[in-house]
Design brief:
This protein is mainly α. The chain has one domain. It has 9 helices and no strands. The longest helix has 37 residues. The mean pLDDT is 84.
């Protein structure tokens, strides 16, 4: 029951829709990729750039947490959140690499192996669509990281009077509940 409460239903719905759309596009539009090296080269170029961008995002993920945490306890509580963020970005990075690997396999597959080539093209197009849809979360992730960094610096530079007043207000709210 606890797992159901922690489930992010919106994110799960997005995942299911992305998988369904990707599967449909991979199956339905595979003929557009067949014998079209320009389409494959375009996807390879875009995903190579996205992979580099994602490495930069992964580099910045833990930094705001380290700046925000004041004690060992706070760092320990934030550890799972940082780990989940890193795992999501790492998975996306591996999907980029897998997409690039399938593109390479398509180029290396002899033209006489038509059935294998067709399946590789279908998987390539479906995976490329899925990873492209998943990449829409990158700007939001980067913005969130930057806002966390901003909040950490803001908290560090906040005058003690304001910090004490904020803590007092939070204690009053807790008592009134």
């Amino acid at each position: 029951m606890e797992a159901l409460k922690r489930t992010d239903w919106w994110r799960l719905t997005q995942l299911v829709v992305a998988i369904a759309v990707s599967g449909f596009i991979g199956y339905r539009f595979q003929p557009m990729v067949a014998n079209n090296p320009n389409a494959v080269n375009t996807v390879v170029t875009i995903f190579s750039i996205l992979a580099g961008f994602l490495i930069a995002v992964i580099t910045f993920i833990a930094e705001p947490t380290l700046q925000q945490a004041r004690t060992w306890d706070e760092l320990q509580r934030m550890k799972d959140t940082v780990r989940r963020k890193l795992i999501r970005q790492k998975l996306l990075f591996f999907l980029y690499l897998l997409t690039l690997g399938i593109a390479l396999a398509m180029f290396l597959t002899p033209p006489t192996m038509l059935e294998l080539l067709k399946w590789l093209q279908t998987v390539f197009l479906g995976l490329a669509t899925f990873v492209f849809l998943a990449s829409f979360s990158l700007p939001g992730s980067l913005m969130k990281i930057q806002m966390e960094r901003y909040e950490a610096v803001l908290q560090d530079s906040r005058p003690k009077v304001v910090t004490d007043a904020k803590k007092a207000a939070e204690q009053v709210k807790k008592r009134n509940r």
